[in-house]
Amino acid sequence: MSTRITRPAVLGAVVGSLAAGGLAVAAPASAVSPDVVINEVYGGGGNSGATLRNDFIELANRSTAPVDVTGWSVQYASAVGTSWQVTPLTGTIPAGGTYLVQQAAGTGGTTDLPTPDATGSIAMGAGAGKVALSTGSAALTCGTACAGTATVRDLVGYGSTAVGGEGAPVTPNPSSTTSAARTAGPDTDVNSTDFTVGAPTPTAGGTVTPPVDPEPPVGPACDAAVATIGSVQGTGAATAVTTPVTVRGTVVGDVQDGGLDGFYVQDAGDGDAATSDGVFVYAPGGAAVDLGDVVTVTGTPAEFNGQTQLGGTRYVECGIAPQPAATALPLPSTDAQREALEGMLVAPPAGLTVTELFNLDRFGETQLAQGGRLLTPTEAAETGAPAEAVAAANAARSILLDDARTARLDTGGQAPPYLTVDDPVRVGDTAVLQPTVLGYGFGTWRLQPADGSADGTTFTPTNPRPAAPPAVGGDLRVADFNVLNYFVTFGGNSRGAPDAAELAQQQAKIVTALTALDADVITLHEIENSSVTTPATPYRAVETLLAALSAADGNTWDYVRASEDTDVITNAIVYRTDEVTPVGGPQVPADLSVFANARTPIAQTFDADGEVFTIVANHLKSKGSSCGAGSDVPDTAGGNCNGDRVAQARALADFAGRLATSTGDPDVLLTGDFNAYRYEDPIDVLTAAGFTDLGPVLAEGQYSYVFGGGSGSLDHVLASRSIVPKITDLAVWDINAVESPAYEYGGYEPLYAPYAYRSSDHNPTVFGIDTDTPATAAVSSAAATRGDVVTVTGTAFDNGEQVTATFPGEPNKNRATLGTAVAGVDGVVRIQYTVPQGFRKGTYPVLLTGATGEQASTSIVLDR
């Protein structure tokens, strides 16, 4: 599994009452505080000259409903610090109520705080620091860039040296005798505006004065002179206008209800194709407008999260008008082309393809692209400039479809759009879009539904769910499956299900998938390394899974007993005892140092009806974390830890060579998660060592993983030359990577079903082996003449087997031996024969006979 970088939740509304016809000032920072806010911070408790003995943080609920803060926390970091200390919270703050968190005591002071609602032990700075209110209990990892983090509900930087608050910090610096306390006005998310320094006033379980709004301003007149929206937007990436303006336009996007807190207006245009005719109007308290309303709006332009908006606005309704015709959104397109359409009703090209769904259950986001699925650059092209060109083309082709909601859906119990249990949206499906407005936020262009609801968007299932695994032929089936951190223990080092109920869900899906694969040998990855987590029962996880699998399919399964402690997850090899027999014991590389940050390769030799082969289960270092300058490269060159994976691939190639020697059989298969795409260096190392990457050969256009909007294969089956002719086919079973995480165990509960779909985040691979491949023979020339040198080639003989070529019978009754040769590791033998001068015109059958009795026939034809 690869680590993902996810966006934080979009900013919510500013707290405050909406005056008639007026809209509150736009929030210029990135911390969400729609109800509970930090009301006061004091770090001078117990210091010299202080009256109070303790530091404290006071919260206030400025909404009209109680808020349960159980599971939340207040956190503190020094003025320029990046490490956060945590105090957990419990209980409920009533509407209009306060909540006092007592912190560390000093040696001075004479007065205790009122009885606190929560108690911590953080020693806060008196003159400068940062305080965050988080909706989670884990320590923040955002350092000095926490504004906009999904769990941060409010954030205060106090003191002139504080870095990382909301806007400018609170000044002058508080002291032993003063605190930073919130003013009575609306929350602007600028600390220097929202807080003042004065005597500390800790209040526990009390009430707060509602924020005071100014008298409602008079709205602009419908006949007032207005500027064109194009003149506000300008031709650049940001507006150049910084003073209040008045514009008039038609409401083309009403996105107030999902947390975007505003609407889009569009005017008739200024005739300049380089300027947008639409703009976002920030209306955090709600505005009584509908699609088609003509409004005159006065406000101050600013860039918020990369999008131009009018804030501090007043408006007046001036009638109703038909919606303007949607303007074509070209794809592929540049940022400049999209900037010229920002805030406008747009018509994207028809037939956009779904390319990623990772954030659908989190933020309601679906990645789309023109021209079919996007491929990960290094899956499609060689590293360096070719992959960079693919990356640029991908960016130009893609666009994000949003659902106009900003909160985390998965943590808030909200249903993701578009999905039902048996009617999914999958990567490769085709979007049928409702009217959309082009917006921008969190670093990307977004299509927002014009009516603020995702209900009107549908999808054509152009990549439907496969009912069963593909047929791959052969008389032995082998599969490779990443089981998505299958752990049977909870807490501690567990990376899997948090409890027995979710483990049961996870296991049911995995067992359904494994049963359907109907494989005889399976390599598994991301399974709990019980030798680390439960040393007394070192194979507990694999034994638990196999017990469930045997109960489901009625077969007897066993596993290879090899364990190393390089990680809390490991590889495993499991097999049906009635289909294959282990030959010797498991093997691992003699030197494991190169795999210290990966998982130990595990090898086992099997005999299947006389066909002997060795399989190696692998899981190389991931791309998710840095390995340092000596190993990390750009994504288009292989990504983080590429150097480490190259070293691991070299060690693996050496290990495979030693296996061929020690087992006496050259048939070696390398399977698993190599964390490298098709054209990356680790795969090049292995193919240069003589292995064939079977996916591109037998399953072109099939991919095991989706990441960053691109499809590709991190999972591979690499075969030694000798076993390649025995592989009948290979396929990727497309059940996981193309589906939303909402279908996983622990996903959106109403969508859970114990079927195979989204049983992991990687697709499984299955391939067939013919354990009794017939030998074949062919000649180098379709027609020959006397004196010609003809090469007779045979295949599928055993490595080292002596093969003899004879004429078993021919027109002039001469029986002769053409020659003998020894088959190579690939099972191929070549025998050269010079046609005698005395041979007559005709067809001469040739028989190849191996020392084990295997035969194949062909013919030499003399045409004159």
Automatic annotation (TrEMBL):
Entry keywords, A to Z: Endonuclease, Hydrolase, Nuclease, Signal
Alphabetized PROSITE patterns for the sequence: LTD (PS51841)
Alphabetical list of SUPFAM superfamilies matching this protein: DNase I-like, Lamin A/C globular tail domain
One term of GO molecular function: endonuclease activity
Annotated GO biological process: carbohydrate metabolic process
Domain LTD, residue spans: 21-160
Transmembrane annotation, as ranges: none
InterPro entries: Endo/exonu/phosph_ase_sf (IPR036691), Endo/exonuclease/phosphatase (IPR005135), ExeM-like (IPR047971), Ig-like_fold (IPR013783), Lamin_tail_dom (IPR001322), Lamin_tail_dom_sf (IPR036415)
Residue span of region Disordered: 163-193
Signal peptide extent: 1-26
UniProt cross-references to NCBIfam families, sorted A to Z: ExeM_NucH_DNase
Name of protein: ExeM/NucH family extracellular endonuclease
Annotated organism of origin: Goekera deserti
